[in-house]
Amino acid sequence: MPGSVGIPCLLMRGGTSKGAFFLASDLPADPGERDDLLLRIMGTPDPRQVDGLGGAHPLTSKVAVISPSAEAAADVDYLFLQVGVDTAFVTDRQNCGNILAAVGPFAVERGLVGASETQTDVRIRMVNTGSLATARFATPGGVVDYDGGPEAGGAVAIDGVPGRAAPIRLNFEGTAGSSTGALFPSGQVCDRVDGVDITCVDNGMPTVLMRAADLGTTGYEDPADLEADEGLAARLAGLRLAAAELMGMGDVSGATVPKLVLLAPPRAGGSIATRSFLPVRVHTSIGVLGALTVAAGIMAEGSVGHDLATLPPPGEAFRVEHPTGHFDVEVAMHPTAEGYTVTRSTALRTARKIFDGRVFPRPRR
Question: What is the pTM of this model?
């Protein structure tokens, strides 16, 4: 029984998130049994997740399930699962680009991909959307370098994470993926819902962009202050449900997508200032796919935020400001007869191996 012998697990930080990583072969094949097990592993439902691995926040209550890929274009398959904190749910309706940053190193750690003597590319199929990404990271002597030695080009810092670590470059094939099937799933770059202009966009993460000023905020507030505003929360909840209908997502009252992003003019030399809702808790930074989606949405003329942004010259990074600093991404897109096409999406992240061992789930109640 898993409760008596434990389950192999690698606890990893990926970008500004943290999660439990498993080989698919170490978990039940039946999704219902798997999800029940993961709830018990993470300590959900409980706002502290005191009886499991979860960190009492959506950013630290995440799971990655990895397996060899049957696709010729990929080395491994990566299924992302968001696990609730105080509510018992497990959902696969979104990807996670921060956790994605640790998938390549995990694949090497578990022997799914052989490492080169200098740097290694791992081709990853994101099962949630079917999209592809390549993670490139240093592997001197065939071992993952998490710290950032000379072979990695030195250590880098990412805002929202203490210290410095080895860089991991995530390259997506054109778009970073779309679970809704379109970059602008409503068919327009700007819609109006309940008196508020919105842009529905999905370059890897279904997202609703709104001007912070239209919701009575500055867009520079501390996340805790935004979370404490009950009137804002109620307004955003209604806008999210209406926007999801426009995006063809149906009833999302029990889902974690679409995300909501409030926009304001940049004030720290970036391209745009953001506050991201997950969709209730406020991100202390911004997700990888969220940043790539914000950049793509704002670059389209006529979209919400286009007039607020300081757009970079072609070929330069789009700097997304967030509560703990900024996140630079690269997105190239071109207008077409049907709208816009994303031709490149790239992000730089770091990851760290925290603990490798066996996890013991709490017993069934």
Answer: 0.89
Q: Which residue has the tokens 């022997």?
A: 111
Which residue do the tokens 């890897």 mark? 204
Q: What is the DSSP letter of 236?
A: H
Nearest to residue 236, comparing CAs of 199, 200, 272, 261? 261
Between CA 68 and CA 131 the distance in angstroms is: 16
Q: Which phi and psi angles does 84 have, rounded to 5°? A: -65, 165
Cis peptide before 266 (omega within 30 of 0): no
- Residue 336, φ and ψ in degrees, nearest 5: -130, 175
- CA-to-CA distance for 305 and 210, rounded, in angstroms? 7
Distance CA(167)–CA(157), nearest Å, equals 9
d(CA 85, CA 305): 32
Q: How far apart are CA 198 and CA 80, in angstroms?
A: 27
Q: How confident is the model at residue 348 (pLDDT cuts 50, 70, 90)?
A: very high
Question: pLDDT tens-digit profile of 110-155?
Answer: 999 999 999 999 999 999 999 999 999 999 999 999 999 888 788 9
DSSP letters, 185-220, are TTSSS-EEETTEEEEEE-SSS-EEEEEGGGGT--S-
What are 329's strand-pairing partners? 318, 347
Beta strand 62-68 with 17-23: parallel, antiparallel or unpaired?
A: parallel
Helix (H, G, I), strand (E, B) or coil at 283: coil
- CB of 304 within 8 A of CB of 198? yes
Residue 100 tokens, joined: 């994605």
Distance CA(49)–CA(252), nearest Å, equals 25
Euclidean distance between CA atoms 169 and 148, whole angstroms: 13
On the 0-12 / 13-18 / 19+ scale of CB atoms within 10 A, 237 is middle
Looking at residue 45, its pLDDT comes to: 98
- The mean pLDDT value of the chain amounts to 95
Written as one letter, the residue type at 228 is: A
User: Which residue reads 């997700």 in tokens?
Assistant: 287
Those residues with Cβ within 8 angstroms of residue 167's Cβ, 6 or more apart along the chain or in another chain: 137, 138, 148, 152, 153, 155, 156, 348, 349, 350
Cα-based distances in Å from 217 to 208, 229, 243, 287, 354: 16, 10, 20, 21, 38
